[in-house]
Amino acid sequence: MIVSVVPSQAQEEHAAMSAAMSGATPGQFAPEPVDIPVIELVHPMPGFPSERRYTLVKLDDDGTLCALRSLEREDLEFVVVPPLTFYPAYAPEIGDDVVADLGVEQAADVLVLLIVHAGADLASTTVNLRAPLLVNLATRRAAQVLLDDPDLPVAAPLVA
Amino acid sequence: MLVLSRRVGESVVVGDDVTITVLEVRGDVVRVGIDAPRSVRVHRAELLAELASSNQESASPARDAVASLAQALRERS
After folding, report:
1. Which residue among A14, A81, A110, A133 is least crowded, i.e. fewest CB within 10 A of its CB?
2. Residues of B with Cβ-Cβ distance to A64 under 8 angstroms
3. pTM for this structure?
4. CB of B55 within 8 Å of any CB in chain A?
5. ipTM
6. Residue B57 is inside which H or E element, if any?
């Protein structure tokens, strides 16, 4: 299933949703980042097993750069970006388990964010395409989802 | 750690609904099949370790690194 891409449609079954999503145009219906006071991770991020509650804060007006800040550990934050500006064709496929975990009812609710590894300069800054953070804006439940596609790198250049 | 010996075609059952079956042994490669409900996430350990270290390296970047990244992106657009 392709989450970032589909117009809202009433779908009763996840299976029906998966089928409806597979032909859509990447990026077209992806929601843009907004400030979210509390995001609950349904599974903690690998490497940070104790932190589950975060807040999302836009670092610029258009939401290209955002901060995902822990509400439980003051010094913990991640820089995240929506993929559209940098990887317009990026369309992660997620399974029914993730759909169920996040309580996704329509793909248009799912905000896709890439975790940024800030390098010394723009050229050495990378994003994780293999494990995006998916936020269901309707439930504010989120997870970093490890995708099955082995061709997606954990460290891809932010800008080519 | 529980250690069990199994032959090809034999299985172990974990909990109520996870079954791991040895499918093939060839040299130092063992192929296993994992039958689990979709709610049980199954990943190669080294991939999870790579993800954990990537997250740890990405976490809490220096303030000036974030500022210069924001600046570079503004100049680019």
Report:
1. A14
2. 73, 77
3. 0.82
4. yes
5. 0.81
6. helix B45-58
